[in-house]
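Attaching the record inline, Q. Sequence:
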Amino acid sequence: MPHSFADQLMLSCPQCGADFTPDIWLIIDVAERPDLLALIRNGSVHRFACPGGHVGEADAPLLLFRPGETPPLLFTPAAGTTAEQDRAMADDLLGLLAERLGETWQAEWPASLLTLPRRLLVEALDSDDAAATVDRALAQAIPPGIGDVLGEITTELLNDGMRLDSAKDLEIALASRPALREKLAAAMRAANAPATPAAASGPTEAGPDPLLAVLRQFVEAETWLDSYRFVRKHPELLTDAAEAALARLVERAAAVEDAAVADLFAEHLALLRRGREVGVMEAFGEKLGVTVVELGRM
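Structure, as predicted:
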């Protein structure tokens, strides 16, 4: 039995009506299917096309099994799910992988499962220490002055028995801890950092720069299609102010020698600049490899 697993759903193309069954990969053994690594690297592992060539993308989680690597299991959740749903899906996929591996499966592997954002998946794959690489990238993305406060808050939540495996877990935990939520919001205001959904319900006179908050959400979008939809809702991203702010983020990341985060910001900056030059649909069509007409139907 192969270790890798793709869900196969019968779909009907909303553009041409063609029925087809794409492979939506949920578990990939990278040793068994090295060919799929190229799709992971270019962000198209969950992208598909109908027989007529119309492109779509599934919002799906992904569990990677890396025999002989540390940690052996990487999990990146879907974009539109809750922390509870992410944990349930991870458990389901781990159970399915254990069944497929049989006697090869080791009971201690789930404890080392590394959950990470899709944007950091490629960097983790290329690192000798995936966990340290992810921790470093996320830490460097946190503005100065916030790291210590966030550490104190997470320590207190963990001591209270809260599970904090993802940013969504932290958001849920802070929703029931208004004092800790305000403590984090105060630190972010002091650092002039963008607010997270858990840190503040909206900008105030003393609150963070709303443009930086929008930029952060743009950069953290799970897929380029999500990024396109977000830009359409936030035309302020196509301004001189947004371009200058994102350029400063590129410089900040480069200054602390975090090439991965700097490249991430630079890629988004280049896309916004291209959008200002030729139009948003044209720029994102180029990025996704589709025509403007196809993008308008997605």
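The beta strands are 5-8, 11-12, 19-20, 23-29, 47-49, 55-57, 62-65, 73-76, 114-115. Confidence is low (pLDDT under 50) at residues 193-208.

More tomorrow.
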